[in-house]
Amino acid sequence: MSLAPRAVLVHRTTEDEELVARHGTHGQAAFFLASRGRDVEEVAERRRRTRRALAEVTAAVPLSWRQSLVERADLDRFLFAPEDVVVVVGQDGLVANVAKYLSDQPVIGIDTDPGRNPGVLVRHAPADAAALIPGALQGRAPTAGLTMVEAVADDTQRLLALNEVYLGAAGHRTARYRLGLEGDGGVVEAQASSGVLVGTGTGATGWIRSVWQERHASLRLPAPTEDRLLWFVREAWPSPATGTALVAGELTAAARLRLTVESERLVVFGDGMESDALDLTWGQTVEVGVCARRLRLVD
């Protein structure tokens, strides 16, 4: 007996809810903001818009379907199924947060705050959900296959990301490692830096673009569906033992960037999810490149 389709609604705790959780009551949260020249109504209105959007999307799910509601903090503990249609209700970054946990399920991005969100990944209004949810399951809704990046360690640990992967020290310490390109004739450079970013065309609208602009890089930014990545070393430090020659480049579909740890601990995380990171120790190697899996985002 086959299971009914399931709509998985992904959301995150709002700023207003976080303030109340920290200060105990709405009144105390309002006092805290007022004492700093801010109005609690600003964040309260964003919470109301988010809740209205979530209620509208929930009501749009067909009655014969199953439903699950998942908060961002619980994504690493939630088991997605092949028959799921994933509906992200919130900001663009929330789509990136969920991408690494999926395997070809269609994703619908619902914008809860038009004008405040860029709408790169949350492309639809709550009113569109009634047509998009069944359409995504039946293949009637057009989708784009967005390129993802993966990091694979020598102990088989693996991490995926939609925007970018960061490799570096936890906190603000200097990361020490040896960096090279796979198949590049063995050219490797010892480096000390603030870490390495490897990003996709989707990430080219965020952190990677910021670094690209600061560097005035001549590298062409990839498109979201292009099998090409850009990588940048952040604040590489020249010394008798470390160099700054390999600080930026691109990776085609078959290329890999290889990093060997030369400090006590480095972390690898994707799309800002530091709580779900790979831990690497001295001597370990990690390779980063284009992932075979793509995110199926409903256009």
Automatic annotation (TrEMBL):
Record protein name field: Inorganic polyphosphate kinase
